């Protein structure tokens, strides 16, 4: 299929859509689709299959896989996903195996060391069967399917996506170890733990508590005297940070004919560093007595990096015992978010601290020994060899204490540092426990499946055809009896974990009287919960969650359209609090005119809104000024930024932060901040206030950069990178678009599901299902996503056949 064909289809399908989310009525879909596209069908022999498999592709790029047995189902899932995302798969494989330096050279050596240092080294069979009773068979079949497509491409290299040609590399085979890698998981808070320890060292525990927004309990931040805070620094976790970061390609990595010739890329100017706690997700389930059709609803929009290809991949898996559709990580089998024939489920992050930094005294006579209790204990060592492009392979020694991987040895001060990782236990690979959830038929079965979900810590929600809704917090949770997990601790045996809290004992709820359950990474733990020693203290700002609850608590009966509207809702609760405070400020000239426009505004961060442009500049400047004035100089560079909720608390209760007279000092702070934000808009967008529209290339927009997009020459960059397109919202609205001017996080993937009719489900997955720039499914979903429009996610064979654009029948050899 040519790109122009799918673009023609998109124009046909979305032409004349009123509003930002209304989808074309399904009754007209078949006629429109068949007028836009043909429906090619083919047969193909696929070695490794046991029985025939049919793959039907819909216009939005979803593969509906119909198999006669479980092996063939997951074999074909792996085959089809690799076909769509081969370059993404190869980058994942190299990250998982610690072989990035083999193609990118010495600059990636620390990444590969870190990967190998944190590699899962337990019993692989036990590990795979943790996720499902037949996990070994499923994961093996999946990798065999991936390798089947890789073999096909190696036989005919004309099938290689352009990225392989640009880098002059070939894809290599997968093993189950690649699938169960933890390298891209949402793992824990080890970086924050180190930073908090550094901050406590320079400011003291009480001032750090004032600057951070720890809740709902008050954590202990005082460090044990055995930990020398002056020795703490980012270098301690350098190997951890290196292996967790995204792979960045440079012009010199490419063949000369593809390289960018211009000067090095300079990032866009931004007010603030990205706040990791503003990157989250939304989900909710609604009981039938609150819905228009009397059936339960489930909505989920996980917020991750906005990337091409998307971090999510949608598939429909059908075989005896399996009928599940939705999205998940492209490189793992199963479906993480979606529905089967019985219920629907979704996830958001639930704060769970599964990492701790341990500090050891080293034996002056033998630096391989560390103090534990009353004696010296030897580290375990593993020798490894890492291939490096352009030079000889690197011989490394990986060291471990009883607590975990050693990330740094300070031979001068006789200290060593190790990270204890709950996710190195069996079952710590992200999302793979979804395999059990995919086959759940009841709330009880779903909750039992949740008991195997170690990583990440999540709020799993469920809605089923029988009318039940439920919530279960998941994630492996170490029990700390005598420390908070927020600062480094000595590794001498006095600060140990007391096992793990059983997941089913984490917070949960079923069929509440209010008729809904909603989570958005804020603290949703009941005050009556008992096991606070296994629950974290760091939570996202509450504004997304509060807005969702505000809407769902209304007395209306909710429709699918209203659930879609809530997912992309741009009403800002911080704006609703802050804007009225501007009315009494002494402002003149353009600042006064800007303030007056805000006072009659509806607080929605719409792309076309000038008021949204004024407000967001003010909110950003507010946080910037708060960091400048309230973070002491000696802690700048340690504390990256103050959470908006903390700043808002100070503004609403000025006596808690501002000197007397507190209200006047607060108002002076707001005046200065608002004037600076207006001046910034004038300098960047011009004198005419009507040009300060929020959604524009110079302000809020989406521009998605391909992994090679900053390294390749401009003609190639223009064909691989997507955008810019206007966007609304920010990191504090339910329609989350984090990342300041250029959206870097938010929901590329969304689903809204009615349990009353599975064919009414809708979704987004921008920019497209395929990662191959030559595919028509590379960017066909980009424009609809940018305009907050949805497409149907059909489940019944009748509906799927009515819109099919490709059919392939794979035959065993």
Provide structural commentary.
With 813 residues, this protein is of the alpha+beta class. The protein has a domain at 573-582 and 592-692: Penicillin amidase (Acylase) alpha subunit, N-terminal domain (Orthogonal Bundle). It contains 24 helices and 31 strands. The strands form 7 sheets. It has an 11-stranded mixed sheet with strand order 1-31-2-3-7-8-9-10-18-19-23, with helices on one face. A hairpin with a 3-residue loop joins β9 (337-339) and β10 (343-349). The protein is globular and about 85 Å long. The two termini are 26 Å apart. The relative contact order is 0.16. The model is unreliable at 1-38 and 264-277 (pLDDT under 50).
Set down the secondary structure blueprint.
Blueprint (H helix, E strand, L loop, with lengths): L2 H12 L14 H8 L4 E5 L7 E5 L5 E4 L3 H28 L3 H4 L4 H9 L6 H8 L3 H21 L6 H6 L8 H4 L10 H14 L1 H7 L26 H7 L36 E6 L10 E6 L1 E2 L7 E7 L2 E7 L8 E3 L3 E7 L5 E9 L2 E7 L2 E4 L1 E7 L7 E7 L5 E5 L4 E7 L12 H4 L5 H8 L7 E7 L4 E6 L2 E4 L8 E2 L6 E5 L6 E3 L5 E4 L23 H10 L7 H8 L5 H6 L10 H11 L10 H21 L13 H9 L9 H24 L15 E4 L9 H7 L1 E5 L18 E2 L2 E6 L7 E4 L16 H5 L4 E2 L4 H7 L2 E6 L2
Parallel strand pairs: 1-31, 3-7, 11-21
Antiparallel strand pairs: 2-3, 2-31, 4-5, 4-24, 5-28, 6-27, 7-8, 8-9, 9-10, 10-18, 11-12, 11-17, 12-13, 14-15, 16-17, 18-19, 19-23, 20-22, 25-26, 28-29, 29-30
Helix pairs in contact: 1-2, 3-7, 5-12, 10-11, 18-19, 18-21, 19-21
Estimate the strand proportion. 15-25%
CATH class of the domain at 573-582 and 592-692: Mainly Alpha
Question: Helix segment count?
Answer: 24
| Helicity level | 25-40%
Spatial order of strands in the largest sheet: 1-31-2-3-7-8-9-10-18-19-23
CATH architectural grouping of the domain at 573-582 and 592-692: Orthogonal Bundle
The low-confidence parts are 1-38, 264-277
Number of strands: 31
Q: How would you sum up the global shape?
A: globular
Query: N- to C-terminal separation?
Result: 26 Å
The oligomeric state of the chains shown is: single chain
């Amino acid at each position: 299929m040519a790109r122009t064909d799918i673009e023609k289809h998109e124009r046909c399908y979305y032409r004349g859509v009123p509003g930002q989310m209304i989808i074309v009525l399904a009754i007209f879909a078949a006629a429109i689709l068949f007028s836009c596209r043909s429906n090619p069908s083919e047969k193909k022999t696929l070695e490794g299959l046991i029985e025939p498999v049919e793959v039907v592709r819909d216009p939005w790029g979803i593969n509906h896989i119909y198999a006669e047995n479980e092996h063939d189902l997951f074999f074909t899932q792996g085959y089809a996903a690799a076909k769509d995302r081969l370059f993404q798969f190869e980058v994942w494989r190299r990250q998982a195996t610690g072989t990035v330096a083999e193609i990118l050279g010495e600059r990636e050596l620390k990444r590969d060391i870190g990967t190998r240092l944190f590699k899962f080294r337990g019993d692989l069979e036990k590990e795979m069967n943790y996720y499902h009773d037949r996990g070994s068979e499923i994961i093996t079949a999946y990798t065999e399917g991936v390798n089947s497509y890789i073999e096909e491409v190696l036989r005919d290299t004309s099938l290689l996506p352009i990225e392989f040609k640009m880098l002059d590399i070939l894809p290599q085979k997968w093993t189950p170890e690649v699938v169960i890698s933890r390298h891209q998981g949402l793992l824990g808070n080890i970086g924050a733990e180190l930073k908090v320890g550094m901050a406590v060292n320079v400011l003291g525990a009480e001032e750090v508590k004032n600057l951070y927004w720890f809740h709902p309990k008050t954590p202990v931040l005082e460090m044990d005297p055995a930990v020398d805070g002056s020795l703490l620094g980012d270098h301690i976790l350098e190997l951890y940070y290196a292996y967790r970061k995204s792979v960045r390609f440079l012009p010199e990595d490419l063949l000369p004919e593809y390289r960018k010739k211009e000067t090095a890329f300079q990032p866009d100017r931004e007010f603030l560093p990205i706040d990791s706690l503003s990157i989250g997700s939304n989900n909710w389930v609604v009981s039938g007595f609150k819905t228009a059709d009397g059936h339960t609803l489930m909505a989920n929009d996980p917020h991750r990096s906005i990337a091409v290809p998307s971090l999510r991949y949608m598939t429909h898996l059908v075989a005896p015992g399996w009928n599940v559709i939705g999205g998940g990580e492209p490189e793992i089998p199963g479906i993480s978010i979606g529905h089967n024939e019985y219920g629907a489920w979704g996830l958001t992050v639930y704060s769970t601290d599964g990492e701790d930094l341990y500090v050891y005294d080293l034996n002056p006579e033998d630096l391989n020994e560390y103090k534990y209790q009353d004696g010296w204990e030897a580290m375990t060592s593993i020798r490894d060899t890492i291939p490096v492009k352009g030079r000889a392979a690197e011989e490394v020694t990986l060291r471990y204490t009883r607590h975990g991987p050693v990330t740094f040895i300070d031979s001068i001060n006789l200290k060593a540092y190790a990270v204890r990782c709950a996710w190195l236990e069996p079952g710590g690979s992200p999302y793979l426990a979804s395999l059990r959830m995919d086959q759940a038929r009841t709330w009880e079965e779903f909750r039992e499946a949740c008991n195997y979900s170690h990583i990440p810590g999540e709020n799993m929600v469920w809605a089923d055809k029988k009318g039940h809704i439920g919530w279960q917090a998941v994630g492996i949770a170490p029990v700390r009896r005598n420390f908070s997990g927020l600062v480094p601790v000595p590794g001498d045996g006095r600060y140990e974990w007391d096992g793990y809290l059983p997941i089913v004992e984490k917070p949960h709820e079923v069929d509440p009287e209010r008729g809904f359950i909603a989570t958005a990474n804020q603290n949703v733990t009941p005050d009556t919960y008992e096991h606070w020693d296994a629950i974290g203290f760091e939570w996202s700002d509450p504004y997304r969650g509060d807005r969702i609850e505000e809407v769902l608590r209304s007395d209306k009966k909710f429709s699918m359209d209203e659930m879609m509207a809530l997912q992309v809702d741009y009403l800002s609760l911080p704006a609703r609090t802050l804007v009225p405070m501007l009315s009494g400020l002494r402002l003149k000239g353009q600042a006064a005119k800007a303030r007056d426009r805000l006072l009659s505004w509806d607080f929605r961060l719409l792309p076309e809104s000038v008021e949204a442009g004024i407000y967001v500049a003010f909110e950003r400047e507010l946080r910037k000024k708060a960091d400048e004035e309230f973070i002491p100089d000696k802690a700048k560079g340690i504390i990256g930024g103050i959470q908006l909720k903390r700043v808002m608390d100070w503004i609403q209760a000025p006596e808690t932060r501002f000197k007397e007279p507190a209200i006047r000092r607060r108002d002076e702070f707001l005046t200065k901040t608002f004037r600076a934000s207006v001046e910034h808009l004038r300098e960047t967008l011009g004198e005419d206030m009507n040009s300060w529209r929020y959604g524009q290339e110079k302000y809020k927009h989406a521009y998605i950069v391909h992994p090679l997009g900053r390294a390749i020459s401009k003609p190639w960059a223009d064909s691989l990178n997507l955008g810019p397109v206007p966007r609304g919202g920010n990191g504090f609205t339910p329609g989350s678009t984090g990342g300041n001017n250029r959206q870097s996080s938010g929901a590329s993937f969304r689903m809204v599901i009615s349990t009353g009719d599975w064919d009414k489900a809708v979704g987004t997955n921008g920019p497209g299902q395929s990662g191959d720039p030559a595919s028509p499914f590379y960017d066909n979903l980009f424009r609809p996503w940018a305009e907050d429009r949805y497409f149907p996610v059909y489940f019944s064979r009748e509906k799927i056949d009515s819109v099919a654009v490709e059919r392939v029948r794979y035959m065993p050899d």
